[in-house]
Amino acid sequence: MADRTALTARLLQTRPRGGRPPGAGQQSNRAWAIAVRAALPVALLLWLLSLRRVALDKMADLGLIQVLPVLFWVALVLLTVGFGCALHDRGIRQGWLAGYLLGLIGMIHATPALLYPELRYAWAWKHVAVVDAMLRHGGPVPDAQGLDIYNQWPGFFVLNWLVLKVTGLHSALGYANWAPVVVNALLVAPLLLLYRAVTRDRRLVWGGVWIFFSCSWVGQDYFAPQAFAFVLYVVVLAMVLRQLPGPGKPSKPGKAGSPGLLGPGDPAGDERGASPWRLPQRADGGWLVRLPLVLLIEAVIVSSHQLTPVMLVCTLIALAIPRRNRRVVLPALAGALVLMVLWDSTVARPYLAANLHDFLSALTRPDGNVTSGLAGLGAAAPGQVIVDWVDRGLSAAVFVLAVLALVRRPWVRRTGIPLLAIAPLPMLAANSYGGEMVFRVYLFALPATAFLAATLLLQRGPRPRLRAVGVVAVLLAMIGGLLFGYESKEAMNYFSTKEVAATRFVLDTAPPGALIVTVTGDAPGSAFGYDHHNRIQMIDGPPEIKARLAQNPLAGLQSYVTYTTRGTPAYLILNRAQAAECFLTGVFPADTVARLDAAAAGSPRFTLVYRNSDAVVYRFVPNP
């Protein structure tokens, strides 16, 4: 009896107050860690399984998001929840966070590449055609007509030309479909470096990168000079920001090899949520070594894209406003300005001279520039009206979170991040950029606004479990908004093998100088051989001819094909994707393609030369 009493007393002494047996906390933590690690592979497996049966032919006004199976959404939710849990668990190594980020990039950007039999998006086909033409000509393409602009900013295309030469591939079509995956994966490293330049709190760093990819709905990551130049833009920002001196006096030197120092009087904010900014190294001999690399990257940007160098100059001007930054920023700014002026006054002079009047006139209507990309969608499909409001809501939410972060997180105002966020804004009033400036400004500000949003949502505070649940809910809402903007137009961005076959038939049979006519640009491969064929897209025609086409398809069509002279034939290509664009955007009545098909079939001046279930080709020969 005495032994039993003693044993009971010892058990009571070793049991914690809460009644949990010894080691229960460790077992719970171990189970939590296993669950966080298991969520990533399980989510990826469910995602791949969900792609086995997707009815692409059922896409309508909401595109891919309305045909993806439930299993895909389960996988996406599991991935987001797993990342949120991993982000709040200091025991999870950062390699797992990188795995979750790459998993998100795969689910969003690799899904079309795995599902579609052909290259996605008409502009990507056009850029592949430019690479092909430069490869054939060994450089600039003569008789490039409307695509001559690419001869004046050839950096991206020359790089792909070299890739083809080295690898022995015959066309960029072999890898262009994976450009969105590669571009977004390449952005991970410079974004991490950019955010680590201002904080050592891994929650803010990795959370900011996740928010960037969750809100990057603009879709400028396809096979294009813009995507290539934007990656280099972020690289330059990361290199410059890491060299900027911190505000105030530097704190006492830490141990050798310390990752960064907090400013004087600032507690370890990354532990207690107060002020987790780090003091980057000051400009020294190391910056002089890195500066030539920065100038080389700036030269590649200047030679590859029209808008990105201007955005870079605006950003460097903003970073140079604080006097403490000028020792680092001014050399990079001077290099970018000199390179841009030299390039624009020499290689790009023909394009700029031809469009100088338009550039100057745009400066006189800043209100029109700001609202040019926010036009109403009264004639568009109902789903696209919803998508438009979702895109506006997500964009506004990101900027609102960024502004709240500047108010609620005073330490952020002592970094260069706010300057990066506001630097692109003046471009809103400077030019409309074909109605896309508002979207480009959002894109170039997103690296900064995403980080600011992360500081508001993810910095440590009271009630950590409740905050974690709220953060996961916000991240899920962001990804939902992203998918609405990014994948809602896939009915027109997706091309079937039959549509590609119709265009190839025309390219194989049309004589040199023939005119290729399409309703919109969604005729995959129609730009191939653009130095040998003339091309007309009815969507780019004058308003009076477009109105005539909508009222009387045959009369409007003949207004276009009469551009053909001396008996040279014209080929009219109609396909499913062009009909989808008319339906989605409302640029023409939704039945325009079907009416054109019927009108051409009933006219003796048009001869049917090719037809399959997704496309049709008519040949027209005008009187000599």
Number of helices: 27
Helix residue percentage: 55-70%
Biggest beta sheet attributes: 5 strands, mixed
Major sheet strand order: 2-1-3-5-4
Query: What is the SS-derived class?
Result: mainly alpha
Which spans have pLDDT < 50 for at least 5 consecutive residues?
11-19, 248-275
CA-based gyration radius: 28 Å
The gross shape turns out to be globular
Q: Residue-averaged pLDDT, rounded?
A: 85
The span between the termini is 120 Å
Per DSSP, what share of the residues sits in E-state strands of 2 or more residues? under 5%
Give a count of the beta strands, DSSP E runs of length 2 or more.
5
Care to describe what's here?
60% of the residues lie in helices and 4% in strands. With 624 residues, the protein is mainly alpha-helical. It has a 5-stranded mixed β-sheet with strand order 2-1-3-5-4, with helices on both faces. β4 (606-611) and β5 form a beta hairpin. Mean pLDDT is 85; it is low at 11-19 and 248-275.
How is this fold's topology laid out?
Blueprint: H1 2-14, H2 24-50, H3 70-87, H4 94-115, H5 122-137, H6 149-152, H7 155-167, H8 179-196, H9 202-215, H10 225-241, H11 269-272, H12 285-302, H13 308-319, H14 326-345, H15 349-362, H16 366-371, H17 382-408, H18 417-422, H19 426-430, H20 437-458, H21 464-487, H22 490-493, H23 497-509, E1 515-518, E2 534-537, H24 543-551, H25 553-561, E3 570-575, H26 576-585, H27 592-601, E4 606-611, E5 615-620
Parallel strand pairs: 1-2, 1-3
Antiparallel strand pairs: 3-5, 4-5
